[in-house]
Every structure is written in structure tokens, then in C-alpha cells.
Amino acid sequence: MDYERFFAERIAALKAEGRYRIFAEIERHAGSFPLAAHHGLAGAPDVVVWCSNDYLGMGQHPAVIEAMGQAVAECGAGAGGTRNISGTSHALVALERELADLHDKPAALLFTSGYVANLAALGTLAALLPGCVVFSDALNHASLIEGIRRSRAEKRIFRHNDAAHLDELMGEVAPGAPKIVVFESVYSMDGDIAPIAEICAVAERHGALTYLDEVHAVGLYGRRGGGIAEARGLGDRVSVINGTLAKAFGVLGGYIAAAATIIDAVRSFAPAFIFTTALPPALAAGALASVRHLKASSVERGRHQERAARLKAMLGDAGLPLMPSESHIVPVLVGDAVKCKRASDLLLAEHNIYIQPINYPTVPRGTERLRITPTPLHSDEMMAALVAALTDVWGRLELSRAA
In the sheet that 26-28 helps form, which strands lie side by side, from edge to edge? Predict the structure, then answer.
């Protein structure tokens, strides 16, 4: 078999569909977020980044930078091993305690990313429970899906955010069978929010554990940044909360928070945890500083919500196809993969605005979009320039204004 030809043909097919991904080589400037040098353009000019998951700009916060620098000076660069063999640093343990407190749970466990956290936790918990049936929201993220697959447990998919359909499916399973309901709080591509109370009520009625992915909500919602569950006073009804340190907290890593026995089971049985090098002390220290700051300060969250609401209003006033969103996510519908990529290219080349196109399989075909993520640090002038640039691109590409 001609292996190289086979792979080249697969890549060519991706390009023909307009779904081939090109990485934008950017260099963020500490202290001037959301500006970044774009090394893919002549002269590497500064561009305004409108698609970052550093939702609050905490990756640039002085307290975070100082904590990381101090940890490197004191501890060096790497972790030195897995958690079991010399890699459990003091900063890492302090961070786990802080995260458990954030979610008012007895314990927490850190991973190298939110993806790995879902893969390890779900893949382990559902596998350990004999005859477990997992109920998964239809729009769950890839890492949740992969974790469920890894467990080899039976899976049932309920319609997106449909507690009644979940109840119907759970009623078809033996009452005594172990069950886990897996869903997200904020769905990152549409920006809608799950009916957590209704889903928890169904799970409780059927004796199921609940596993809530809050990666697009931690730091951003709730009195202390504990996410949607905290904001709605529902944290005690959720069995396991998954979060990330790479988005609103601005650093790197993922975690779960739950009962001590659940955490210990994942810690003791999950290969993706046991055989992975631990987070380095500097990353743990930076994340710890970020979590502590956002637990005490609501300034960033308030400004963030105001910026998102203002941008949505401006896009609506301009007649651009803003998709419905309950959260800080601002999706603008294009509906065509090739044109979505073309729109992104024009914004970057002619307006120095960087927004990555979102195409299949991240979203369904026909719903390709530009996913905009305003932060507290995007100014009124930046928003006005963005709306003007989008209006120009929509006219030049003759894109639909219907959302």
C-alpha cells in the first residue's frame, strides 16, 4: 500500500471541503492582551484576538505571572515525575485543595488538561461500576464522548438539554443498574446553558451519578467563580464537576472535584492519571494564584458579562447573523465551510482581526460559524472595529444575514 498517497488524498479531501485547519502562529504580549503579533503575516503585525479561551485575560495577570516566575526560580521547570513517583509538588497539593473548596467538594484531582480529566475520570468510573449505563447529552464535547467510549460501558444519548427525554431513556434501564448522567453547563459552540436542576432531578429519581463539565463556566460564573452550578446553588446536587485551568483561569491543566471516595477511585485506577507526568510546580502555582484571585474578585466577571452583552447588541444592531446564546459565547453564523474560512482570512489579512473559523466536525455541516469570545480587555473601539470589519466581509462575500 502507498501509505503516503493514502494520507495525502485524505488531506486533499479535507482541503476541498474547506475543513483543512491552518494554525495561526501568534505571539501574545504580556500586559497588552488581546493584542498579539501574527507571524503568518508580513512583518508580523499586531492583531486583535477575538477567539481566545483566555476568557478573562488571566494568562496576563500580574499575580499569575509573578507566581509562575517565583515557582520556576525556586523549583525549576519540570515536575520531575508522575504523581506517584516524585511529581506531587506542594503547589499542586495546595491547588487541589483550593479547587475542592471552590466547588464545595471534599476533594479534587488534577490532570494535564480538561480533555485528559474527562478521558480518565469517565473512562475509569463507568468501567469500575458493574453493568453501568451512561446517559450522554447529544451535544457533549469530544473528550466526554471519548471518556465514555474508553469505559466500554453501555451508552444512551438523550436529546440536547432535554430532561424529559433523559427521564424516558432512564426509565428503560433496570432500576438497580449503576448509571451516570454526563452533560455540560455551558456548551461552547452555541453558548447555551443546561437545565442543571431538571437534569439532576431526573438523575436523582433514577439513582444516578451526575457528571457535569464546567470547563466553559469555571471562573466566569458564580459568586466565587465556581461555575453555573454554583451560580444556581446546585453544586451539592452534582456528583462530579469537571473543570479546566486553561480557559478562564488562564494557565493549563484540568481537574475533577467530587466525594473523596470518587477521587480516590480515579486516582488509584485511571491509567491516564497514573502514567502521566504531573503538572510542573510553576503551572500549579500560576493556576493557584488565578483561582485565588477570582474567588475573591468579581470585577473581571462583571466586566466580562458587560462586554459580551454589549457586543451582542452591536452585532444585532448591525444586522449580522448572531446566533442565540445565553452565555459569554458570541457565535455568528456563516453556514458554509469554504466561505467561513474565507471570511476568517479576510478579517485577518485586511482588518488585523483574528477569529478562527469553526467548521465540521466541531459543529454540524451547514452551521459553520465565527465563534467570538469578548473579554474584559476588549475596548469599545475594538468592538466597533470588529463590527465594521464583519459588515465589510459579509457584503464582499454576499453572506446571509439570517441566523
Answer: 26-28, 35-38, 46-49, 353-354
Report the C-alpha dihedral over residues 9, 21, 287, 239, rounded to 10 degrees. Answer: -70
Contacts 24+ apart (CB under 8 A), 387-393: 387/314, 387/315, 387/318, 387/320, 389/347, 389/350, 389/351, 389/353, 390/315, 390/318, 390/320, 390/332, 390/347, 391/318, 391/320, 392/351, 393/343, 393/346, 393/347, 393/351
Amino acid letter, 294: L
* pLDDT tens per residue across span 262-289: 999 999 999 999 999 999 999 999 999 9
**Is 362 exposed, middle or buried, given 0-12, 13-18 or 19+ CB atoms closer than 10 A?**
middle
Q: Residues for the chain: how many in total?
A: 403
135 strand-pairing partners: 156, 181
Sheet of 369-372, strand order: 330-333, 369-372, 357-358
With beta carbons less than 8 A apart as the criterion, state whether 390 and 382 touch: no
As a whole number of Å, the end-to-end CA separation of the chain is: 46
Grouping H, G, I as helix, E, B as strand and the rest as coil, residue 241 is: strand
Distances (CA, A) of 77 to 44, 68, 80, 131, 284: 29, 10, 9, 43, 12
Neighbours of 354 (CB within 10 A): 21
Beta bridge partners of 186: 193
What distance in Å separates the CA atoms of residue 162 and residue 105, rounded to the nearest whole number? 27
What pTM does this model have? 0.95
CB 293 within 8 A of CB 63: yes
179 is catalytic: no
Q: How far apart are CA 258 and CA 109, in angstroms?
A: 9
C-beta of residue 255 within 8 angstroms of C-beta of residue 110: yes
Beta bridge partners of 49: 354
**Which class for 305: exposed (0-12), middle (13-18), buried (19 or more C-beta within 10 A)?**
middle
Which among 247, 312, 339, 341 is annotated as catalytic?
A: 247
Residue ranges of alpha helices (H) inside 18-89 are: 62-75
pLDDT digits (tens, 9 = 90+) for 25-42: 999 999 999 999 999 888
